[in-house]
Amino acid sequence: MASASAALSIENPKGDSEYGDAIIVSSISDARTLVPILATDSASGEICGMLFNGLVKYDSQMNLTGSLAESWEVLDGGRVIVFHLRKGVKWHDGERFTSKDVEFTYRKLIDQDVRTPYSSDFTRVETFEPVDEYTVKVVYKEPFSPALSSWGMFIMPEHVLKSEDLNKTDFGRHPVGTGPYKFKSWKTGEKIELLSNADYFEGRPYIDRYIFKIIPDDSTIFLELETGGVDMSALTPLQFTRQTQTRYFNANYRKFRYPGFGYTYMAYNLSDPKFSDVRVRTAIDIAVNKEEMINTIFFGMARITTGPFMIGSWACNEDVKPAAYDPKKAIGLLDSAGWRDLDRDGWIEKDGKEFEFTVLINQGNMERLRSAEMIQAYLKKVGIRMKIRVLEWSALINEFIGKRRFEAVLMGWSLPRDPDNYDIWHSSRTRQGEFNYIGYKNGEVDSLLEKGRGVFDQGERAEIYKRIHKLIYDDQPYLFLYSADALPIVSSRFRNVKVSPIGIGYNFIEWYVPKEEQRYSLKLGKN
Is residue 103 predicted with pLDDT exceeding 90? Predict the structure, then answer.
């Protein structure tokens, strides 16, 4: 078993002879759209990250560095950013990248007719000026602390999209970017294939093809690993600790483990009367034994979460401790909210109706299914009947979450490096396609989220976010569950794979396979 502190890379000198091969990466869900400012799910985000660039990006140590912008100046106390763009960058169709593309992307981000959840960062801009083809000046209405990081937003091509309706454009399935890979094909529910960009401004990637293979079941993915049909995947804790401890896996794969950048939660539709009382939500929180869930499902490779910030980060309030598992106290809280088992049948009721609800989860994620099953058992002990409904990912997002047709959902957030959570928790972010899909509203949280965006001192910002952390945990709009460790596995034929504070993959264009170990040719498939 490898850990982040172990020696995790095999580095050999590279040359032209090392170009080639393909990597087959598994995913339990298909992408939804490859219009980057509409991409909200992890599958779409992963593919967009191969196809597009922002002005800035995070390096291996989680510091902001240039991408499409080679440099910048922050002026007037943070109100003004002047970006100097890279020259010579080309879109995948050969057209030049210029400041017009940045301006176009900005205009679409603030267009109220475009269903993007990312607009809030950009509505704070007072003026946007393309000074010349390779310089843009952004002036904010007031100092905005996440301003620089927000320009990690992927830039779109003005010349392709200027006459398109982004909500309906075919670009979502035939994208043109500036990134290290070019789009080749997409077979819905099967695979997305990308080809390396020989003209990429940071250098041609060594791996010729990136194949994103949709396999909506963890056990099937594991069978593909066993037969070499998949090169890279996320392992379940059971697979990581037990099922991959074989001679075959030791000889053919490398495993990695490091803290994850997200958390799993059960969210309530707060417009549902069953969940409108904080006593009910608090009762559910203490009725669920999260420590037992982590030990049973994750073999200890996860941590209990109490709020929306990365555990151990400067924004996380370590004084907010998870409430102790206490089903008796939970029954008391439910009783005080009017939910009682009057007919002694084991189920609580109020106004003649049993407390019954359905939680929605996505197909193929066994940890979420097992989590839902354990929550179901815990809630049964306090008289709540919870049903589980498993849905295909796109149906879950588009037909249920997007249209607010749910009572509860079991989901996960991948956390940004900046702790600004405005888009998830501010009461204004509840339009279709936006992230506050539960309808959470707390006036003090709103004010603090707004204040946190105007403060640059990290110590002062930390106090703001720690207060937000406590308020949200006290409100219990989510049943906060756990942050699981990332457990990727990669075929050992890929060299230069390294773990850093940001994980693996940050240097993917430098991964390579020695010529004698390459398995796939560009045109003929497997050699």
Answer: yes
Q: Note the pLDDT tens digit of each residue in 187-204.
A: 999 999 999 999 999 999
d(CA 254, CA 492): 6
Tokens 């409100």 -> residue: 475
The answer to whether 373 touches 386, Cβ cutoff 8 Å, is no
Residue with tokens 């409108």: 276
What is the Cα 510 distance to its own chain's centre? 23
Tokens of 296: 């049973």
Contact status, residue 262 vs residue 413, Cβ threshold 8 Å? yes
Contacts of 229 (CB under 8 A, 6+ apart): 24, 223
Distance CA 342, CA 356 (A): 15
First-last CA distance in the chain: 31
Distance CA 177, CA 95 (A): 10
Tokens matching residue 330: 């939970």
3-class SS shares of the chain: helix, strand, coil, % to 5: 30, 25, 45
SS3 string of 281-343? Answer: HHHHHHHCCHHHHHHHHCCCCEEECCCCCCCCCCCCCCCCCCCCCCHHHHHHHHHHCCCECCC
Closest Cα to residue 496, out of 248, 207, 268?
207
Predicted confidence (pLDDT) per residue in 312-348, tens digit: 899 999 999 999 999 999 999 999 999 999 999 999 9
How many angstroms separate the CA atoms of 436 and 440, rounded? 7
Q: How far apart are CA 94 and CA 151, in angstroms?
A: 23
What is the 3 state secondary structure string of 235-276? Answer: CCHHHHHHHCCCHHHHHHEEECCECCCEEEEEEECCCCHHHC
Burial of 29 (C-beta count, 10 Å sphere; 0-12/13-18/19+):
buried
**Maximal C-alpha separation, the chain:** 77
